[in-house]
């Protein structure tokens, strides 16, 4: 990396319509904050970009000086990929515009937009696409890495709905890709993360989704979890695509949606989203709602945009987080026992264990049609360590996550890229599996110097000898 001079910095500042923030700026500490407070990095330059031209200027500046680029969209990566210590942060947060074309069922979304920007805009037309379950999640990171959400079993992953994109490549070019213009790059963007450039505009396919869905929570005591999870497993075996569910095992959070009498008690919750006919949904869910001894049942018609914000209070910006994740098959009795055992050992009142039900439309996409790696999994489990550093000890929370992950490892059938944390190059390669060689070839074409390396990195220098061993 070349040494930065005052003249260099001034040159980049003059080229931007947006702002260039340096460590001398009083706004610097705030500008370098991301969602995960466990991440503490000090980038020499933060370019708050106003448009695609700004992005091109920042990327060209960095590449010309041998500096890497970290792209910040929503800043919601648990691994802190929107920050670096040695390069230029391309901050897209000022670029949040959403333009909906209801006739084409297409949303044009700028690279810094959050799902809280997208959902109200699309729902105004009775449309939606699969978005994150926390409204402050960035569209870019979620979409490029896969994108699980309440609608995924009906509408596919967020990445499955990416039909076109504008991006700035490592050499500063602004290119548009779709099924006709560089379809191989579109393939790579659909699951390959931020490896190939900075996406400044996403074209997302929309689906008819009534603004009111049948949604809410069923909450049971954790002591009932083995029986409840077995009953749940039997129900979802024949679930239609309209049903999206997330299990969540944890100490009950102190949020407004849950009565105070339950706060802090060990529970298993089933978060429900039925996006089809409500009467059919009520009938399908009845056997589960009438089973056992639920301590809370809030399932009722509610606006989809309200559902999309329902979990926001459990994912506070600035708290500290450490994750691991495993994709697995059916919810066997053995897996249920592992989950319940480790939830009983939970080390923080804020930590959680969401288990996402996959399948449906996700599994009907041919595996080679996108770079996303786990089409055949039934579930993804996220061991979600969450704590406040002033009150808790990091090491024991991290140890709980890692122990849990090791216990689940024998049952793994894949990994979800967006839930990787510190697994390193081997973890990234494992997540992509047999798609790795194709992704490396694309990376070598688009970014041979690995300018975009603050991501779940696909190293263009991966040796051909190793590639042949994996073939």
Fold blueprint:
Elements: H1 6-15, E1 19-21, H2 28-31, E2 45-48, H3 52-64, E3 69-72, E4 88-91, E5 98-101, E6 106-110, H4 115-123, E7 127-128, H5 139-145, H6 152-155, E8 162-168, E9 174-177, H7 183-189, E10 198-205, E11 207-208, E12 212-221, H8 225-236, E13 243-251, E14 266-274, H9 278-289, E15 296-297, E16 300-303, H10 304-307, E17 320-328, H11 333-343, E18 352-357, E19 379-387, H12 394-408, E20 412-414, H13 424-432, H14 436-446, H15 464-470
Parallel strand pairs: 2-4, 3-4
Antiparallel strand pairs: 1-2, 5-6, 6-10, 7-11, 8-9, 8-10, 12-14, 12-15, 12-16, 13-14, 13-18, 17-19, 17-20, 18-19
Helix pairs in contact: 8-9, 8-11, 11-12
Domain FAD-binding PCMH-type: 39-209
Cofactor: FAD
InterPro entries: BBE, FAD-bd_PCMH, FAD-bd_PCMH-like_sf, FAD-bd_PCMH_sub1, FAD-bd_PCMH_sub2, FAD-linked_Oxidoreductase, Oxid_FAD_bind_N, Oxy_OxRdtase_FAD_BS
Characterise the protein shown here.
Helix content is 29%, strand content 23%. 50% of the residues are buried. The radius of gyration is 22 Å and the shape is globular. The longest helix has 15 residues, at 394-408. It has 471 residues and is of the alpha+beta class. A hairpin with a 5-residue loop joins strand 8 and strand 9. Mean pLDDT is 95; it is low at 465-471. The protein has helices at 6-15, 28-31, 52-64, 115-123, 139-145, 152-155, 183-189, 225-236, 278-289, 304-307, 333-343, 394-408, 424-432, 436-446, 464-470, and strands at residues 19-21, 45-48, 69-72, 88-91, 98-101, 106-110, 127-128, 162-168, 174-177, 198-205, 207-208, 212-221, 243-251, 266-274, 296-297, 300-303, 320-328, 352-357, 379-387, 412-414. The chain has four domains: 6-91, Uridine Diphospho-n-acetylenolpyruvylglucosamine Reductase, domain 2 (2-Layer Sandwich); 98-208, Uridine Diphospho-n-acetylenolpyruvylglucosamine Reductase, domain 3 (2-Layer Sandwich), CATH 3.30.465.10; 212-419, 3-Layer(aba) Sandwich (Vanillyl-alcohol Oxidase, Chain A, domain 3); 434-470, no CATH class. It comes from Amycolatopsis silviterrae. Residues 39-209 form the FAD-binding PCMH-type domain. It holds the Pfam family BBE. Keywords: FAD, Flavoprotein, Oxidoreductase.
